[in-house]
Amino acid sequence: MSIDKLVGLQETDTKLKDLSDLLGDLPAKVEELNHQEQSIKDSLVSNKERLKELEVEIHKREVDVTQVNDKISKLKDQLFLVTNNKQYDALMTEIDHRKDKRSSFESESIDFLEEKETLTASVTKMESELDNLTNDLSERRLKLESSISESAEEKKELDDLRSAQLVGVDESTMLIYDKVQIHRNGIAVVEISGGACGGCGAHVPPQVITEVRAKEGLHRCGVCGRYLFNNTKLDN
Ligand SMILES: [Zn+2]
Fold it and tell me: Which residues contact 175 (CB under 8 A, 6 or more apart)?
């Protein structure tokens, strides 16, 4: 296998990397904003459901208090009709019992009203957050979409070219190539320049340089592991 194949592959990969760098962190940012938007939406739904429940509970307590008040005033009316102390005490106990009930309804009602107030404020805040987020998001989505569509055609051409370049490259070479790319910032093939590796600057033995020039087999830098080529030969 000729080093020329790897040189071509590296050129294509570098162009592909430049294309994806153009998009920068935009795709990740859009995804993060989408996630935030969804989580605020979910919270809003559950908060609004709770607000509805609270309305129901608050109304229920109002009805309960009214009913207890009616009952108490009826009991008080009966006080005028009692004929002995025993009846009187029994009525008073009943009235006290109703009053206890009333104050427990009232204190529940206060708790619900407080919760409603807090929740309403938080819903208002979330709605404005969501508004800002949605504006920000739609701007970024537009930017992302236009960047993607601008580069889509070029990316397709490069992907096709890459597939064609991969034909005839053996698997073990590709494994090393991929590994070196990952560890060496996307560059797995470099030119020898001034007797040194063009990637890390390490000295390359003259014998290796001769073989690289003659394209005898594949050679890698002993230090950084990148594949080596020599341009003067390639230009022939
Ligand atoms: Zn090197």
Answer: none
